[in-house]
Write a structure and sequence with these properties.
Structural class: alpha/beta
Largest sheet: 7 strands, parallel
Number of helices: 5
Number of strands: 7
Helix content: 10-25%
Radius of gyration: 20 Å
Length: 237
């Protein structure tokens, strides 16, 4: 009997926890817009980082990715494809013959707005549905699925229970999602990528983003000093 072709898709934002409710005191610091443009991939993260540094707060980090690949069994011929955007999970090399998609992601990627003619990072699962593939999403334990709008196509959704994932995967796709995951998390992403026990194929050029965190820390110290001087000047003599 022929094995069903199964695709495992992993979005690195699965490992980047963010507050899930407006009552969380840190929620305003995570009120970010997300668009896959050069500005949101890099420059936007400077002001976002400063918002934490100026308050003396640690920067949010990706976590929980260590040991992840050990949860899966891979076919002997399995290959891992990787890219910046999850839209490339529907790349011709990736989608060829796929009958089931299992996605580990903080979002279901099954449509949030009117669909376009080409797959985007937020609706590529719809295109797999059109091919007849079965769809499943595992949310990270920190994610509240009720905050997501209903998918536009049938998707089995649940919070990841952890442990071994049943079955064999014949292909893997990994995306960095740099509009959702900050550049200071890039070392973790590339360690996660290299730790996958599979041959790897880049679908687009991907390198660590040039992000000068130490310069930002210096800027935050200067800003804090300036604020303290202003406060002293405001005090009545």
């Amino acid at each position: 009997m022929k094995e069903e072709m199964r695709l495992l898709v992993v979005d690195f934002d699965y490992f980047f926890p963010v507050p899930q409710g407006p009552k969380d005191p840190l929620a305003p610091l995570f009120a970010w817009a997300h668009f896959e443009t050069p500005y949101y991939l890099l420059e936007a993260w400077e002001e976002r980082a400063l918002a934490f540094l100026l308050r003396g707060l640690p920067l949010p980090e990706a976590r929980g990715w260590e040991g992840f690949w050990g949860r899966f069994a891979f076919a002997e011929e399995a290959v891992l494809y990787y890219a910046e955007s999850n839209a490339l999970a529907f790349h011709p090399e990736v989608r060829r013959g796929v009958e089931e998609v299992v996605l580990f992601d903080a979002h279901h990627d099954a449509g949030y707005r009117p669909l376009g003619g080409e797959p985007a990072c937020d609706d590529w699962m719809v295109f797999y549905h059109r091919l007849g593939a079965r769809l499943r999403v595992y949310y990270p334990p920190w994610r509240d699925p009720s905050l997501e709008p209903e998918p536009r196509v049938p998707v089995a959704r649940e919070v990841d229970p952890g442990g071994r994932v049943e079955g064999v995967f014949h292909r893997v796709f990994l995306c960095r999602s740099g509009a959702w995951v900050p550049p200071w998390a890039d070392p973790g992403f590339f360690a996660f990528l290299q730790g996958a026990p599979l041959p790897k194929v880049a679908l687009e050029a991907l390198a660590p983003r040039a992000f000068d965190l130490e310069a930002l820390r210096g800027r935050a110290r200067e800003e804090a000093l300036g604020l303290s001087i202003m406060e002293r000047l405001r005090r009545p003599s």
